[in-house]
Amino acid sequence: MKKVKYYLVLVLAIVINGCDDFLEKNPPSKPSGNTFWKQKRDLDMALTACYGTMTKSVQGYFSWGTPKWDSFVDNCRSVDEGITFDVFQGNIDPSTTGIIRDVYIDSYIGITRMNLFLYQLDKYTNTDLSDSERDFYKGQVLFLRAFYYSYLYRCYGDVPLILEPLDMETQYQPKADAVKVLNQIFLDLDNAIGLLPDNTYRELPGRVTKSAALALKIRMMLYDAYDNTGSANEEKMKKILAVSEQIKGYTLCDNFENLFQGAGQETNPEIIFSTKYLAPNNWHKSDLQFGAWLWCAPLTNLVNEFEYKDGSPFSTENTLYNPENPIENRDPRMGMSTFYHQLVIGDVEQPVTGVLPTGYGLKKFVTRDKTQYPIGYNTRSDQDWVHFRYAEILLTIAEAENEVNGPTQKAYNAINTIRARKGVNMPPLPIGLSKAQMREKIRHERRIELAFEGHRYFDLKRWRIIGEVMNNFKEPTLPLYKSVFEERFYLWPIPQSEIDKNKGVLIQNPNYK
After folding, report:
1. Which residues of the chain are modeled with pLDDT < 70?
2. CA dihedral angle for residue 110, residue 447, residue 458, residue 147, rounded to 10 degrees
3. What is the longest distance spanned by two Cα atoms in the chain?
4. Distance between CA atoms of residues 507 and 35, nearest Å
5. CA distance 388 to 81
6. What is the CA radius of gyration of the chain?
7. Dihedral sign, Cα of residue 19, residue 24, residue 30, residue 34
8. Residues 435/402, Cβ–Cβ less than 8 Å
9. What is the pLDDT of residues 214-269, one digit of tens each?
């Protein structure tokens, strides 16, 4: 099925949001606010531009660059130190650039486009748009707005809550309480759930469906289910279980690697929502950055978390250990997610152009298409980037069930289903686990299954153990690689550039003034 082509409307999206002077300097063939939004075709193009915001960030923080979120914690080391390394080292202040600044600015760029679309959709009166189509449009854009606010809420806490297009009189906005922001996320998602179709993602590839809105709601409910001591709220966990039951029509796919490769994504039964790409015009840099430049090096702390294939924990004393190839005899997901010293796809070797400080490289998202090798500056990667998949839902069910009822069969089944995936075939969890033991098994499974997918940082934060983990972190291959996490880092500072341009209306987060 033909993929969504975001690139067709990139210029259009800039123009329709531009100023009158800009429009006057361009030929009359360019669309303007006076000639656009007049027919359904315009809405379709604008909706594509809304999806296109997920690819806008130069570093791909909301799509193909999500492995970089794992470099804040104990999963991988980013060699791109000017972008994410400051977070790991604790060099965080209002003037910090890179991801601290970019997530804030790029989120509001996305939110601005969603608000404009919703405003124009509400004004649209042409008869070429049916009520069901209007609902579908609105539901998709409400989801996308909630998606951006989910990052703002988790990273910054109190932020401006902007729900309509701004003008010269309203452009300076104060912060809203984080609780109000979270409530708006849930309101947008609940409205989206009521408007979106029940189709699976396989039936509507490239589009947000009801399941995607449910998945984002569950993710945010789980983030909100722990208090400041790391204790789970049972009532909130019960609600998570109830919402999880509404996601239907998805199963785990038979091939773990296919989840992240173009050829196996279009009809994948596990993918709930992804960002679509199509080279040569709409592409990303994941193969170049992770496969050639080796920007994200898996840390020893993570690779030692992978069990042996018989389910026993890693140890160099184990008879299954092979010092020449530590990936051998391990959980198969290790060899599908990482490589040791040399990236090899079939009989093709990728020349090493970067540094592997730990000996391991990131393989999970790198293309398996041998015709793309050697990866270099001319590589145009177009694997779709998966945001939500059914394995995350099963992990959430296991976590919520264990916190509410302990290690029931339901919790066991959710985890064992993931471990028993065809091609993985890891043994089931041992019976007789206590609630605390099951909790650790679930957290282990999240780390392994979702490695490099941008979850670990937020998981450690919601469990309120990120300080304990990171301030005691040691990497044996990099003795000087030290992390610093202070209590104030649970929330990032508002970028100083945004404070400066808001004439005193926007105030800085506590502990950063």
Report:
1. 1-33, 80-83
2. 20
3. 74
4. 39
5. 28
6. 23
7. positive
8. yes
9. 999 999 999 999 999 999 999 999 999 999 999 999 999 999 999 999 888 989 99
